[in-house]
């Protein structure tokens, strides 16, 4: 008996064909959404205003005055402050890579999207360059040349932060870069790093993908051949054909030799990464000074960073304590070991012994700013949906848009930047201990940035705000109850307090143990159950209006566990608080991280399933509360009630 046709389908190949087909259609659709510069305006049309613009180009690229004027006219018409120009003959693989990263239809509106471009020419408003501290000097077409593409890619990524909703792309028909060869391994690695992408991980993934396609073609018959063939022809299917807005000079060669060229590019990139690992470029004076400072501090050990262990619960005073988890620093791999204890009576979880102020400074250093600032910014920039859900939680409880909103623990202001799309008429201010709050003000993500401890501003800001938010902030503080007192003082009567926290009662905390990411040691000082927080808010004159668990879920349980485990097994070889890495150590770390790629892929799939379940069951790994302050404003800390 002949088996049904679907029994003869090679499902691995079929799924690969489906994924490649969807990617091809998506890339072709995105390409058609990239605007093309119109013909240069004439004197009869009225020449555009070219003053106030700079055109920056990479080495060897020349832009004619007509294209410059056309770009200025397009930017003025659309309301852009940064415009990346794509050459009409942009290389095929570079074009495909850009289309994988950017959806032109949503790029302009996405305030948190990372700045992307081709790396050849970018038109920038002078005031944006000045705010970004990247003014090259000169005017118009002057001061434009001499950059490497990687430098321009990094610049566009930075400029998008200062023109969050006014950065775009356009194809310049008269701009040409000729038939450029495939970049050398170090050049390609530098360009990927400039875009915030890890070249080692991407090279490993590219090699794994090519090996999969070769295996499918050799072992799964016509379905496997179809998968390999679709990958082979993808450049032409996306970029070729009549009416295509791009005309890559290398399209025939890029299509005919794609597997060989992709393999060579991946091998060259991987070799370059082994010589200079991700995040470990050639030593600079700053890197050397940073390493020397850490070595000097660590000669005294880390025990001095811990206070004496307390014997009672800081929330309710009970002495019924037990150890919940003991972990090293899995975030940065700095030396030290930390204990979280839990109160058997109220369920409060806290770091015990807790870090001193000097200890907090030591373990926070180079995480959100400095060496780790770029990575942290990338992570926060990808939480746009979560930020919008936080901002929208207020909608059912107010008729008018709030006039003033203070985001406490704002970091670099990512929430405020995203929330402007929900509440465009609201003034957003930010407060944080780090230098990032000043950068948020320069970017225009917050109107005013306050730097310091929140309780220090209780008197200065008393009664000033209609909304105060504390998103994943209270768990970092040394005294959460004092922070709540300050929030009550800063709010106007009838104002709203929004709080989001990890939930220590989450099932995943028990399942994953020390590898549960929200333990976040040694930064998190307190994790309190929602019932404890509700009671503390009531004591301070608040009425809880809404509580969310599933919608507040952070979809990172399994992915975070793999990341923490990988960091534990293969710490960053370039970390300045450790002895200099050997070539063998770097190769081992790279091998472990490459081997972990399938685990990350599986973890991402599990997290997607876990998130879907959490949304339906309201049982996530975090919770979110919205409370309203009674009309009688409580006194500021230290005042009489």
Automatic annotation (TrEMBL):
The keyword Transferase applies. SUPFAM superfamilies: S-adenosyl-L-methionine-dependent methyltransferases (SSF53335). Pfam families: Methyltransf_23. GO terms for molecular function: methyltransferase activity. Keywords: Methyltransferase, Transferase. Gene3D superfamilies: Vaccinia Virus protein VP39. One of its GO terms (biological process) is methylation. Signal peptide: none annotated. This is Class I SAM-dependent methyltransferase. It comes from Streptomyces vinaceus.
């Amino acid at each position: 008996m002949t088996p049904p046709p679907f029994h003869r389908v090679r499902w691995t190949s079929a799924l690969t064909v489906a994924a490649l087909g969807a990617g091809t259609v998506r890339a072709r659709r995105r390409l058609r959404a990239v605007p093309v510069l119109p013909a240069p305006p004439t004197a009869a049309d009225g020449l555009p205003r070219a003053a106030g613009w700079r055109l920056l180009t990479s080495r060897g690229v020349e832009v004619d005055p007509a294209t410059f004027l056309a770009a200025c006219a397009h930017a003025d018409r659309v309301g852009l402050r940064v415009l990346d120009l794509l050459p009409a003959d942009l290389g095929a693989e570079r074009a495909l890579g850009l289309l994988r990263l950017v959806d032109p239809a949503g790029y302009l509106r996405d305030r948190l999207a990372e700045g992307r471009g081709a790396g050849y020419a970018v038109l920038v408003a002078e005031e944006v360059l000045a705010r970004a501290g990247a003014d090259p000097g000169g005017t118009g077409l002057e001061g434009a040349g001499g950059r490497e593409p990687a430098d321009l890619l990094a610049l566009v990524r930075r400029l998008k932060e200062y023109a969050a909703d006014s950065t775009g792309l356009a194809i310049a028909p008269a701009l040409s870069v000729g038939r450029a060869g495939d970049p050398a391994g170090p050049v390609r690695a530098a360009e990927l790093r400039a875009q915030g992408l890890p070249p080692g991980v991407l090279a490993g993934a590219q090699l794994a993908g090519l090996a999969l396609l070769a295996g499918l073609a050799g072992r799964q018959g016509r379905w496997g051949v179809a998968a390999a063939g679709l990958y082979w022809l993808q450049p032409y299917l996306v970029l070729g054909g009549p009416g295509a807005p791009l005309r890559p000079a290398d399209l025939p060669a890029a299509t005919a030799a794609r597997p060989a060229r992709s393999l060579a590019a991946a091998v060259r990139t991987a070799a370059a990464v082994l010589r200079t690992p991700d995040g470990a470029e050639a030593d600079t004076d700053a890197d050397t000074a940073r390493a020397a400072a850490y070595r000097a501090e660590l000669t005294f050990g880390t025990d001095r960073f811990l206070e004496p262990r307390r014997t009672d619960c800081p929330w309710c005073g009970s002495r019924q304590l037990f150890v919940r988890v003991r972990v090293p620093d899995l975030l940065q791999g700095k030396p030290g070991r930390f204990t979280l204890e839990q109160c058997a009576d109220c369920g409060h979880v806290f770091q015990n012994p807790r870090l001193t102020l000097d200890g907090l400074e030591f373990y926070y250093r180079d995480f959100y700013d400095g060496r780790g600032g770029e990575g942290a910014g990338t992570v926060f920039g990808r939480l746009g949906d979560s930020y919008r859900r936080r901002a929208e939680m207020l909608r059912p409880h107010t008729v008018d848009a709030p006039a003033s909103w203070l985001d406490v623990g704002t970091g670099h202001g990512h929430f405020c930047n995203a929330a402007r799309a929900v509440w465009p008429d609201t003034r957003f201010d930010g407060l944080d201990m780090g230098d990032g709050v000043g950068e948020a003000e320069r970017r225009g993500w917050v109107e005013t940035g306050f730097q310091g401890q929140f309780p220090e501003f209780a008197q200065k800001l008393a009664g000033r705000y209609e909304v105060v938010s504390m998103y994943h902030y209270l768990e970092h503080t040394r005294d959460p109850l004092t922070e709540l007192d300050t929030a009550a003082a800063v709010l106007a009567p009838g104002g709203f307090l929004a709080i989001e926290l990890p939930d220590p009662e989450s099932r995943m905390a028990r399942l994953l143990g020390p590898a549960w990411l929200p333990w976040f040691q040694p930064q998190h000082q307190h994790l309190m159950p929602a019932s404890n927080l509700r009671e503390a808010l009531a004591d301070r004159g608040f009425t809880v209006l809404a509580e969310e668990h599933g919608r507040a879920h952070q979809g990172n349980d399994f992915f975070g566990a793999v990341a923490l485990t990988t960091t534990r097994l293969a710490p960053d070889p370039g970390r300045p608080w450790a002895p200099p890495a050997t070539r063998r150590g770097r190769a081992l770390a790279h091998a472990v991280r490459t081997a972990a790629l399938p685990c990350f892929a599986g973890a991402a799939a599990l997290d997607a399933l876990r998130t879907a379940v959490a949304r339906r069951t309201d049982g996530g790994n975090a919770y979110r509360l919205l409370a309203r302050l009674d009309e009688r404003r409580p006194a500021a800390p230290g005042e009489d009630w």
